[in-house]
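Let's practice the habit of predicting before peeking. Look at the sequence and jot down your guess about where helices and strands might fall. Then scroll down.
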Amino acid sequence: MLIPKLFFLPFALLIFPLDASSSSIKLINGTVEFLRNEKAIKVRFTYLTEITYGEVNSSTSKQAMLYKSEMDNIYAYAKDNLLMEKSFTNLFEKNSKLAIDNGPYANYLFIVNVDHVVPGILWEFGRYNAECDLTVRIIEIKTEKEIAIVSLKNMKGRLKSFTFGYGQSNSSMLEEAFAKAGKELAKFLEDKF
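Done guessing? Here is the structure:
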């Protein structure tokens, strides 16, 4: 009965795609051990942003242009409603001893720059997963000196449930990418101190 099993393998791969790329986080410059005794940080977001559209990036077909337009709308909606920032900060706080306090009590500021975004979109027979690359600059507030730089690459966001739909805008994939980035940054910092 080897043939029937092999017959369904391509269909299984279509339903459950394999993702070979992995996310990475690394300390580019400086040290983060000074955060060991800190209780709170401030966070501010800045946006570059280079938007790419996955596999439809170079295509000029009507269908590809529709996808690009949808992805632009998803990114604009998420940015305007602070969905990406909330997702990042929520999971950062859940996985770190550091609280996010934008009041006068924090000694350090995390400037989270959004370097690259693929908003992600659902379409008839699949999806383009959301992805983001971030650079976090850690600044001492009193001296305004840059203490460290942390790079987060290929933070992927996927849907939690399988949904069908053509051109269906869904900012939740983008929120998932930023949530993963917040969680990964918190774990990375906790491992360093």
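How did you do? The radius of gyration is 19 Å.
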